[in-house]
Amino acid sequence: MNKNLILITTLLLTLGALAPGVTALPTVEETVQRVIEAVHTLGDRMTIAEASILTHESDISALETENAAQQTQLGGLDTAVTSLQSDVGVLQSDSTNIWNEIVSIWDFVNAHETTLGTHAQLLSDHEILLIGHGSMLDDLNITQVALSQSIAQLGGDVSLLQSDVASAEVTLNDHQLVLDGLTDVPQFIQVQLIDNNAGNELGWSPSGAQSFFGIIEPGITGQSVVSITMDNVGQSVNACSVLNLAVGSTFTIRCDVAPANGGILNYVVMNP
């Protein structure tokens, strides 16, 4: 403190000596008074400075406290980030599992769609079969009606039946002669078969449902040429053809449309 007082006194003396218009040095009392005033002023400034230092220290302490709180918050955030990273890993794993399940479900759906398509095709095939069976039942009903009509016709036409039997007997006699070897196979055979018992026994039995007929004809040889025509078969145009020749026994006829009940078959066998 004495050093400070001496310095301040020296400073004041110097200022007083250098001050313009000053003609004499201050007295000791004036100097002391000035020093006291300067000391008071310095004390006031030191008090202000100390108060400012305390304020700054308080601010620093508050900042340190706040910094510690922020560090704590950062630590909490680090923990939260770590937890979120863990959750993200779990979500990624769950996402992979869910995707695998979706792929599995998709494959399952595709497999069932294929199975359903197969079942639908089977149902369609069964529907086609049912339609075919229905058509067959209709044909059977038509055949039954035709047979009933044929029975009624046969029952009411006794004289025609007797004539047909006689004609068939003549034809059978001719065939028997060939079979017995009493005569040679004729070069020209002409026959008419009617839808009656005699014609039915020789393989001609049209009903509206049958397209193939095996006609008994012993005059068939390996070189025979058979020509056929039909009457009263229910169709304006009906293509029929001879398929097979069995030497000494039969030939087969196939028609595009089944001949109707009561149809008449005319055929000629030519043996070169």
The first-level CATH class of the domain at 158-270 is given as: Mainly Beta
The CATH topology of the domain at 158-270 is given as Immunoglobulin-like
What is the N-to-C order of secondary-structure elements (H for helix, E for strand)?
HHHEHEEEEE
Mind describing the biggest β-sheet?
3 strands, antiparallel
The number of helical elements comes to 4
What are the segments in which pLDDT stays under 50 over at least 5 consecutive residues? none
CATH architectural label of the domain at 158-270: Sandwich
The number of distinct β-strands equals: 6
What separation lies between the terminal Cα atoms?
169 Å
Share of helical residues:
55-70%
Percentage of β-strand residues: 5-15%
Class of secondary structure makeup: alpha+beta
Radius of gyration: 67 Å
The best one-word shape is rod-shaped
Strand order of the largest sheet: 1-6-3
What is the mean predicted local confidence, pLDDT? 78
What's the oligomerization state? single chain
Notes on the protein architecture:
With 272 residues, this protein is an alpha+beta fold. Among the domains are: 2-76; 158-270, Sandwich (Immunoglobulin-like), CATH 2.60.40. It has four helices and six strands. Strand 4 and strand 5 (250-255) form a beta hairpin. Helix 1 packs across helix 2 (28-156). The longest helix is centred in the middle third of the chain and has 129 residues, at 28-156. The termini are far apart. The model has no long low-confidence stretch (mean pLDDT 78).
